[in-house]
Amino acid sequence: MTNSLQIIGFDADDTLWHNERFFRLTQDQFERLLADYTEPDHLRDRLLAAERRNLGHYGYGIKGFVLSMIETALEVTENRVPGHVIRELIEAGQDMLGHPIDLLPHARDAVSELAADHTLILITKGDLLDQERKLAQSGLGDLFDGVEIVSEKTPVTYRDIFAAHDVSPGQSMMVGNSLRSDVIPAIETGAWGVHVPHDLTWELEHAEPPRDHPRFHSLPDLGQLLKLVHQLKH
Questions:
Q1: Using one digit for the tens of pLDDT, what is the confidence trace for 2-26?
Q2: 8 Å CB contact between 135 and 141
Q3: Is residue 1 pLDDT above 60, yes or no?
Q4: Virtual torsion, Cα 119, 120, 123, 129, nearest 10 deg
């Protein structure tokens, strides 16, 4: 079996379009709303702890983020948080669910150029309805041969997706901004893992890069991806 690259998986949020900046703006609003009760650094720590422990309940995405903010607000105010604060947090989440899609530089060109000769799969975490909305509004949906909205990105997740397309991990690549979710578990299956860093990356997605691994690559932006793919195939 040839090891020629056949499938390229793309992460969505903060790989193809901006996402984390909307979370940061909402978190800034959250800190302003709770400023009378606790310091911003303490509030951030409490919120991150709530998000971490709630992943198993709510999964990834805006809805879980809003619920974690409400839970944190109740904790730091000892259940005395005013009702208008809860209302504003809910409205902030609704605004996030309706934010327009802003593609990252080179995203459209990279996807359209690679779609001509490769099977492209969008592999993303998050809320099903929200991710479907963002893909539809991105204008990239028709360029993908498949869309996988998963609860977690693990080596098993990638192995199953590649197998469903009758392709081995050695013939596959995953491209994304998260070392923890997009790159490292894909490499552990035997695929190429391509890290395209974003200026804003959620703390729970941080990990050390596997710099010495022969299947690890890091690019400054998606504009360099086509060149890398050609290099790997020749």
A1: 458 999 999 999 999 999 999 999 9
A2: yes
A3: no
A4: -120
